[in-house]
Amino acid sequence: MKKVRLLLLTGMLIFPLSGVAQPSQQVLRNSIEKLNSALAAKNIDSVKSLLSPQFSVGVYDGEMGRSLFEYFMERGDMGTFELSSGELVGDGSAYISRVSMAAQNGTRQDTYIGFDKDGGIMFFDWIDRGYGQSRTAE
């Protein structure tokens, strides 16, 4: 009986914690809305505040990754984003969500954004592909 109680207590402690680490859909929607507002205003500092400490572009992280992202922002290639589905795939520390991007030139495409457990943006697959890398298998 003590073993059963121990297993139940252990299960109650472990399983709820695994769900806590995943950002909620509302957190992701808020991140996307703030991203869209900052992109529309071309406010690089506001966008930088949404980026995860682990943000990178392709193989470039840290300041180099952020500088490359600024370059894409300044070029005006990025339009607006919206979550395409409620599906969020992750491992507890990083999550990928499918988004629809409406580019400045009027085209629309599906792509992915990576988020950390707090909803910070870790990567944009659309930009990574421009550097010959993709973190999603399609």
Question: What would you say this structure looks like, in words?
Answer:
The chain is of the alpha+beta class and 138 residues long. Helices cover 43% and strands 27% of the residues. The chain has helices at residues 2-20, 25-40, 44-48, 62-75, 125-130, and strands at residues 56-57, 60-61, 80-90, 94-102, 108-116, 121-124. The strands form 2 sheets. The protein has a 4-stranded antiparallel beta sheet with strand order 3-4-5-6.
Which helices and strands appear, and what pairs or packs with what?
Blueprint (H helix, E strand, L loop, with lengths): L1 H19 L4 H16 L3 H5 L7 E2 L2 E2 H14 L4 E11 L3 E9 L5 E9 L4 E4 H6 L8
Antiparallel strand pairs: 1-2, 3-4, 4-5, 5-6
